[in-house]
Amino acid sequence: MPMSAARKSKTLSVLIVGCGAIAGGYDERRPTRAKSAGVFTHAGAYRAHKGYHLAACVEPDAKRRKAFMARWGVKQGFASLGECLESGAAFDVASICVPTPAHAAQLEALLAFPVRAVFAEKPLTGAPADSRRIVAAYAKAGRPLAVNYFRRFDPVLRALKREIAAGAWGRVHGAVGYYGKGLLNCGSHLIDLLAYLWGPLAPRAVSGRLDDHLPNDPSLDAVLEGPDGGLFHLVATDSRAFFDFELQITTDKGRLAIEEQGQRLRVRRVQSSPLFAGYRVLVSERRRPTGFGRALVEGVDNLHRCVTRGEALLSDGTNALAAEEICAALLAMDGGAQGGRP
Q1: Domain coordinates of the chain in residue numbers?
Q2: By Cβ atoms counted within 10 A, which residue in 3, 70, 224, 289 is the most buried?
Q3: Which of 222, 223, 232 has its CA nearest to residue 198?
Q4: How far is it, in rounded angstroms, from Cα 109 to Cα 273?
Q5: 3-151+295-316 CATH choice from 2.160.10.10, 3.40.50.300, 3.40.50.720, 1.25.40.10
Q6: How far apart are CA 22 and CA 20, in angstroms?
Q7: pLDDT at position 87
Q8: Which overall architecture, per CATH, does domain 154-291+325-334 show?
């Protein structure tokens, strides 16, 4: 689609770079789960939104590229970004869904493309120096750079953020987060989510290491400091046993627990004890679904409004870089080569 035609239309053309699990694979396996479970890929989210058209993809594996094009109705396929650029094709939005080590090169290459915005997978690059350079380059180019810390898109968690900011829960005392499968890969999600809900975090200590993921991305036990001196305890669990992602936030008025990878919000409020006079205790109040399954669709909707109306991104290079810098500091505290739990 010529650039002039693309920009006159509110239907944005999409180029997906990388055709793996997060690009479309998770949703290609949908027969194995209930349709109501939600959408968990870039292609699935764009397809679910009326404001996008899946126009092209880039994937070096010809078999995978062909399968992706057939499954998602994509008309153009390229083996590389270079081949795509040489074709003269133009797109409104590009999604970066390649493995993390390839992010920096692909994001830099896209600066030469006539795209209006980019939606990158997390972590941004895995290397803060590269990420700082890329965030600065996109800002200089005036090109929106969204990053898929998708829980920021969840309407239920966005409402929770507003409640905390308004003082509805009183002072936040601290938090505990459980995760596995790598500090950068999954721990950064917890760090970014708590920073979103509570405020800026600073790394303070590392107390343990679990090598349950890639050699350069261990899961670390760590302590971070939040606003007003409150502490965030990051607890590594072994993803080879099960995948864990939960966050508990303790406040003056209760405890908020984001459970089941973010699919449920459990609220426990403080009440007077029915057993012991003068004591105030936590009681279970309710456990309800979040917007987990529709978060990515909300994310591409936010991106669409950013491109067409100039609205701010809910997750961009700035918050992604902040999470990445915290991870880098924690990995440096660990030493990167210490022995840990096998």
Answers
A1: 3-151+295-316, 154-291+325-334
A2: 224
A3: 232
A4: 61
A5: 3.40.50.720
A6: 6
A7: 95
A8: 2-Layer Sandwich (3.30)
Two tokens, residue 317 = 């290079």
Question: How far is the C-alpha of 1 from the C-alpha of 153, rounded, in Å?
Answer: 29
Cross-sheet strand order for the sheet of 254-259: 202-210, 219-225, 231-236, 172-179, 245-251, 254-259, 264-272, 280-289
3-state secondary structure of 72: helix
* Amino acid making up residue 76: Q
Residues near 209 by beta carbon (within 8 Å), at least 6 away in sequence: 218, 219, 220, 221, 236, 334, 338, 339, 340, 341
Contact predicate 146/313, CB 8 Å: yes
Query: What is the helix (H) or strand (E) element at residue 26, kind and residue range?
Result: helix 26-28
How many Å apart are CA 109 and CA 289, to the nearest integer? Answer: 39
Distance CA 132, CA 117 (A): 18
Both structure tokens of 168:
């509805």
Let me know: does 324 contact 124? Beta carbons within 8 Å.
yes
Q: Specify the pTM.
A: 0.92
Tell me if 287 sits within 8 A of 265, measured CB to CB. yes
Confidence (pLDDT) at 15: 99
| Mean pLDDT split into 10-residue runs, the chain, 342 residues | 45 98 89 69 97 98 98 98 95 98 97 96 97 98 98 98 98 98 97 99 97 93 97 98 98 97 96 93 90 98 98 99 98 69 54
